[in-house]
Write a structure and sequence with these properties.
Largest sheet: 6 strands, mixed
Strand order of the largest sheet: 3-2-1-4-5-6
CATH superfamily: Dinitrogenase iron-molybdenum cofactor biosynthesis domain
Distance between the termini: 23 Å
InterPro entries: Di-Nase_FeMo-co_biosynth, DiNase_FeMo-co_biosyn_sf
Protein name: Putative Fe-Mo cluster-binding NifX family protein
Number of strands: 6
CATH topology: Nucleotidyltransferase, domain 5
Number of helices: 3
Number of domains: 1
Radius of gyration: 13 Å
Length: 119
């Protein structure tokens, strides 16, 4: 399974998970089965006051053929884009990417449910 994880810094498996999806400075693209990963900067360019950062970042993630994404917070627009693309959305915060991967493999991550959707 191919994952994208939002990162605050580029420190490999010691990278902290970013608290925001759309404005995350980096993403780790990782094969959850074998652990092979690449870290790429979030190249989504937005202007001052741009409210589409989440949607643009989600579109970039979807173009990378991932099965699931892990971050702390997602906006409604990101949820809509990722959901439409069939990408699973999981919540993880306050730790390093290595811990997020362990929790994912153990089935311990909560699926994201936007407020007011009833899903």
């Amino acid at each position: 399974m191919q994952l994208a994880i939002s990162l605050l810094e580029d420190k490999g498996m010691d990278s902290p998970v970013s608290s925001t999806f759309g404005s995350s400075p980096y993403f780790m693209f990782v094969d959850a089965d074998n652990g092979f990963f690449k870290i790429r900067p979030n190249l989504v360019k937005t202007g001052a006051g741009d409210t589409d950062t989440d949607a643009k970042t989600a579109q970039m993630i979807a173009r990378n053929n991932v099965d699931a994404v892990i971050s702390d917070k997602f906006g409604q627009k990101a949820y809509e884009v990722l959901n439409k693309a069939g990408i699973w959305i999981y919540i993880f915060f306050d730790s390093l990417v290595e811990e997020a991967l362990k929790a994912f493999r153990r089935g311990q991550l909560a699926a994201y449910e936007p407020a007011g959707t009833g899903i």
